[in-house]
Amino acid sequence: MSALQKARFAVFSYFTIAGAAVTFWAVHIPFVETKLEITPSAIGALLLVFGGGALTAIQLVGNLIDRVGSRTATFLAGTFMGVMLFTPGLADTPVLLGIALFFLGIGVGATDVAMNAHAVEVEKAYERPIFSAFHAMWSFGGLIGASLGGIALANGLQMQTTLSIAAVATLIIAVSMRTWMLPDNPNHQVSTKQDPKEISAEKVRLKAVNSANRKVLGYVLFLGAMAAAAAIAEGTGVDWSTLHHARVLGTSEAQASLALVVYTGAMGFTRLVIDKVVALRGRIFVIAFGSLVSAIGTSIVVVSTSSPVALIGWIIAGIGIAGVVPQIFAYSAEVGESSHTGRNMAKVVGITYAGVLAGPAVIGFLTELVPLNIAIGLGVILGLFTALGTLVIRQRNANAKTV
């Protein structure tokens, strides 16, 4: 196996453990609701706290990537995530669970930005689209977490035991894959110049690239809004599919995990082929078409009255949303100054997590006003917004070609 192939496998591994960390927790949401005797709106608040932790980490990790490199940042974040995965199972009150989820969110958010930045480096080295394949591993990780978590629930295994086993596995993989990644290539080197003229020239250069990158800040923020909308739509299935099945359709908690399994599985298998579509039709086509298909699938879930129909809807939604967020992330790495790749991507991912932060809470609060299946319809509206957003991207790209 070549060094580049090892790097690709290492990033695959980090995406897998990050995806699994999320669903190992998420599949236990109905269990936590019953155990702690809390409402769907309280679940929404806990998910809000999880997103808050992720958003906190993202404010710092972009600059860390630019200064020390994405390899070191990915390893540190992945290790922290593994340690924090122990904690939700130890919580026996909503407050303690909220604290645990906040720190787990920090680990997941930091790992997300760092491994995406390293994935961009690996894709550039391959010189062909492979980015969605990395996110396929996130989905397969989610599938692993949902499947094993569902099996554990069906067999009466305690949440603490399940998450502890998952945490140990996460740490082993995070540590063992560090040396397989590409060498660190920080965008900001620590200056060793002693000549005042060279130091002054470097300051002028940095000021110039900072100024140039500020010109695309508004566009970067818009891409972040699109990614956030798509992430909320994606998170609707991850966070609420099991609860929808259990509470709206009346299945058992173990059977409800099947909804999360088929949803994450559909995303994972679709991401294996999305890169071929990107090579043929481009990133923007995948973002636009995928968002529309996702809206259709979520609409089916909203009107479903039986488990089989809802599962079909989740499969369609998973297929559609699979390539949207990854391709927005990859596209954002091509915008602005190369010296600001980590920070620009961090802004997009940060806004995305702000959406992930707000989305579950909004849906949770909506359940106080309307049934859960209607609240899930928010994913339909957001899918349409993301699809329409690609018109702005196309217009900007067309204008750039005429300059």
Give the fraction of residues assigned to helices. Answer: over 70%
Number of helices: 16
**Model regions low in confidence, pLDDT < 50 over at least 5 residues:** none
Order of helices and strands: HHHHHHHHHHHHHHHH
What is the residue-averaged pLDDT?
Answer: 85
Question: Mind telling me the CATH superfamily name?
Answer: MFS general substrate transporter like domains
CATH C-level class is Mainly Alpha
Q: Could you please say which CATH topology applies here?
A: Growth Hormone, Chain: A
Instruction: Tell me the strand percentage band.
Output: under 5%
Gyration radius from CA atoms, angstroms? 21 Å
Largest sheet: none
Kindly give the count of domains. Answer: 1
What structural class is derived from the secondary structure elements? Answer: mainly alpha
Oligomer: single chain
Task: Determine the N-to-C terminus distance.
Answer: 44 Å
Q: What's the total number of strands?
A: 0
What is the CATH architecture assignment?
Answer: Up-down Bundle
Overall geometry: globular
Report on this model:
The protein has 403 residues and is an all-alpha fold. The protein has a single domain (3-183, 196-402), classed as MFS general substrate transporter like domains (Growth Hormone, Chain: A, Up-down Bundle). 82% of the residues lie in helices and 0% in strands. It is built from 16 helices and no strands. The chain has helices at 3-26, 29-36, 40-68, 70-84, 94-126, 131-154, 159-176, 196-214, 217-248, 253-281, 283-303, 307-321, 324-332, 341-366, 372-375, 378-402. The longest helix has 33 residues, at 94-126. The chain is globular and about 65 Å long. The chain starts with a helix and ends with a helix. The relative contact order is 0.15.
